[in-house]
Write a structure and sequence with these properties.
The chain is α+β, with helices and mostly antiparallel strands. The chain has 4 helices and 5 strands; from the N terminus they run H-H-H-E-H-E-E-E-E.
Length: 137
């Protein structure tokens, strides 16, 4: 078998492609799981993140596709800033070790109150906020 320039180029391209796929797979596998270890920590983290409009902290508790979580958290925090949201409170229901809903309440800049429910998700001991309707099983 004769080594030609074409074979060398094809071999290099195949090796680069395989290296890229391996690197991508490792990076995806090493991404931390979203969420925190307990419902109470989830409530505290979410409440603090929304009050301080901290997108990074909000991102840690989102059950959202990892490739878009940072952008979503930034947009969410920016909207809270834009509306002048303050005095944000988060309550979990039902009470206990297995809540299914977080209710976010607060006051807007013009004094109007707001509130909405969010679904909670527990996966492998990690608790996160799922931005889907809070349907109970």
């Amino acid at each position: 078998m004769q080594i030609t320039r074409r074979r060398v180029v094809v071999t290099v391209i195949v090796l680069l492609g395989a290296s890229w796929l391996t690197t991508l797979t490792v990076l995806i596998a090493q991404q931390p799981e979203a969420g925190v270890p307990s419902p109470s920590e989830l409530r505290t983290t979410l409440e603090q993140a929304l009050n301080s409009k901290d997108a990074k902290a909000l991102e840690t508790v989102l059950d959202y596709p990892p490739s878009a979580a940072a952008d979503f958290a930034k947009s969410y925090a920016a909207r809270f800033t834009q509306e002048g949201a303050r005095d944000v409170r988060v309550t979990l229901a039902p009470a206990g070790d297995a809540p299914t809903t977080a209710t976010v309440t607060g006051v807007l800049a013009d004094g109007r109150r707001f509130g909405y429910p969010l679904a909670l998700k527990e996966d492998g001991g990690n608790w996160s906020v799922a931005f889907v309707p809070p349907f109970s099983p």
